[in-house]
């Protein structure tokens, strides 16, 4: 994939994250729903093992819930893009150098 397509893909992903994430379902996710239905959700509440940067997909410190959700979507998209870009740089070889190693 060339750099121009990569940038366009990132821009489209950021636009989707910014404009559609406020419309995401407010219903609990699958695991939380099962915990509610089976009656053991209270065992997990208040016992945070890892401090979440954006708990419940909302960017902290912003009063507007829609804006906080959009920012969380943007930050999450950038973090995932950055992580996958680094992984691809480490593990994916360019087609022209297959079998020759990195130089």
Automatic annotation (TrEMBL):
<dbReference type="GO" id="GO:0005886">
    <property type="term" value="C:plasma membrane"/>
</dbReference>
<dbReference type="Pfam" id="PF13190">
    <property type="entry name" value="PDGLE"/>
</dbReference>
<dbReference type="InterPro" id="IPR025937">
    <property type="entry name" value="PDGLE_dom"/>
</dbReference>
<feature type="transmembrane region" description="Helical">
    <location>
        <begin position="67"/>
        <end position="87"/>
    </location>
</feature>
<feature type="signal peptide">
    <location>
        <begin position="1"/>
        <end position="24"/>
    </location>
</feature>
<keyword id="KW-1003">Cell membrane</keyword>
<protein>
    <recommendedName>
        <fullName>PDGLE domain-containing protein</fullName>
    </recommendedName>
</protein>
<keyword id="KW-0812">Transmembrane</keyword>
<feature type="domain" description="PDGLE">
    <location>
        <begin position="3"/>
        <end position="91"/>
    </location>
</feature>
<keyword id="KW-0732">Signal</keyword>
<keyword id="KW-0472">Membrane</keyword>
<keyword id="KW-1133">Transmembrane helix</keyword>
């Amino acid at each position: 994939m060339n750099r121009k397509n990569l940038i366009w893909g990132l821009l489209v992903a950021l636009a989707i994250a910014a404009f559609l994430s406020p419309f995401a379902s407010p219903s609990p996710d699958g695991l939380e729903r099962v915990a509610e239905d089976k009656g053991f959700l209270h065992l997990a509440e208040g016992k945070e093992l890892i401090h979440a940067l954006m708990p419940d997909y909302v960017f902290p410190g912003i009063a507007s819930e829609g804006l906080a959700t959009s920012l969380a979507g943007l930050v999450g998209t950038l973090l995932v893009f950055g992580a996958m870009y680094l992984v691809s740089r480490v593990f994916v070889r360019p087609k022209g150098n297959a079998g020759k190693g990195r130089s």
